[in-house]
Specification:
five-stranded antiparallel beta sheet; 323 residues; single chain; elongated; alpha+beta
């Protein structure tokens, strides 16, 4: 038969406090300050937890728990602990799934209070990863992504591996110095002692949805790529500008050229239609030559703004790196 832990009982844990609470209630003097200053409060619900036979449970009876046991994400039949936790001598696999489960807020925002006459099924709780308020789960062998319903991402769901998982409304990881997220720290895992594991990366997934997941950009490589593009734009601008200058020279000659006639007729003057058209072309080409200067200045300004480490708009992070 499974063991279970009942809610805080002041008659057992704090007899003096229990007598004082009883005296006030009998006198009609409910203490409005009960619970303030981290004192005991009879209003706090400490739910009933269904302990497995091998669990060692530590609790302050205020819905904070440390459970030393085996992999168990739900009822007694769940996880590798529910499967029997048996070592396979043929495959030389260690199936041990020792687990530490740190939980606060078991039962979520409105856990059931243990009341006389209630059936255990109505008020008792197995581990409930989606509903329990906050959890740190450390297991020697577990299906961590399945248990916490995590999107597979680029590396897929990991099964039968050791894992440390944190789940809460909000999580903060802070360091006085640096933080490293490192993969493949060794060539072995708890489920593979042959040293043939592959390198997996780091997935940053918002909304627990793998759709649209794309690789991160490497900053210095991007700068090299942009530098090449800037150089190509400048080279193309110079080429077009040279073509415009050649066209201007040709247009000037075409607009003013004359045709000698057989004597004694003299020389034929320039064509009025061609002269007008040529003036228009000359004007447009000259404007484009001026644009060449503007284009080159803008290109170099953009390069300095985004690819120079001295710029405030430098596209590379000054503190964060990836491979």
């Amino acid at each position: 038969m499974a063991k279970y832990v009942l809610e805080y009982n002041p008659e057992v844990h704090s007899p003096d406090k229990a007598r004082e609470l009883k005296r006030r209630r009998e006198a009609g003097q409910e203490n409005e300050e009960e619970g303030l200053g981290c004192t005991f409060s009879s209003k706090i619900v400490h739910p009933l937890y269904f302990e497995a036979a091998t669990d060692l449970t530590i609790t302050n009876n205020l819905n904070s728990w440390i459970v030393l046991g085996r992999d168990r994400p739900g009822n007694y039949q769940s996880g590798y602990g529910g499967c029997g936790d048996i070592t396979d001598p043929i495959k030389n696999e260690n199936a041990t799934c020792a687990t530490i489960d740190l939980v606060v807020g078991r039962g979520g925002t409105n856990p059931s209070r243990v009341t006389p006459g209630s059936s255990l099924d109505e008020i008792g709780y197995h581990p409930d990863f989606p509903s329990d308020a906050a959890r740190v789960y450390i297991s020697q062998k577990t299906n961590v992504d399945d248990n916490f319903v995590v999107a597979p991402g680029s590396m897929g769901s990991r099964r039968g591996k050791s894992a440390v998982a944190m789940k809460a409304d909000n999580i903060r990881i802070m360091a006085s110095e640096g933080i490293k997220l490192v993969t493949k720290i060794t060539n072995y895992t708890s489920g593979d002692n042959k040293g043939n594991i592959k390198t997996l990366g780091i997935d940053l997934i918002a909304g627990n949805n793998s759709r649209g997941l794309q690789p991160l950009v490497k900053g210095r490589n991007l700068i090299s790529c942009l530098d090449e593009i800037y150089d190509l734009i400048l080279k193309l601008t110079s080429t077009v500008s040279q073509m415009l200058r050649t066209n201007i020279e040709l247009s000037a000659i075409l607009g003013t050229h004359t045709h000698p006639l057989v004597p004694p007729s003299g020389i034929a003057g320039p064509s009025p239609e061609l002269t007008v058209a040529n003036l228009k072309v000359l004007f447009e080409d000259l404007m484009m030559v001026f644009d060449e200067v503007t284009t080159k200045v803008n290109c170099e300004t953009s390069r300095a703004a985004y690819t120079s480490a001295a710029s405030g708009d430098y596209i590379c992070s000054r503190h964060n790196n990836t491979n």
